[in-house]
Known about the structure:
Elements: E1 2-3, H1 11-19, E2 28-32, H2 38-49, E3 52-57, E4 62-66
Parallel strand pairs: 1-2
Antiparallel strand pairs: 2-4, 3-4
Amino acid sequence: MLDCRGQRCPLPVIKLARRLPELPVGAVLRVLADDPAAAVDIPAWCRMRGQEFVAAHAEGPGYDVRRVG
């Protein structure tokens, strides 16, 4: 889990980009981010970087990203 609550975008996306390569392929990372821009920025980052956006969760709020490669 990556806790980015209280941080403004683009910080959650930057931290996601740094952390995801540390995980094995297929792993899912939950990013906790309460900046409203994260709801758009995290899925967009996944599309641009070829990673899988799995789900958004209202509690937290959290965003699950699967490392593809």
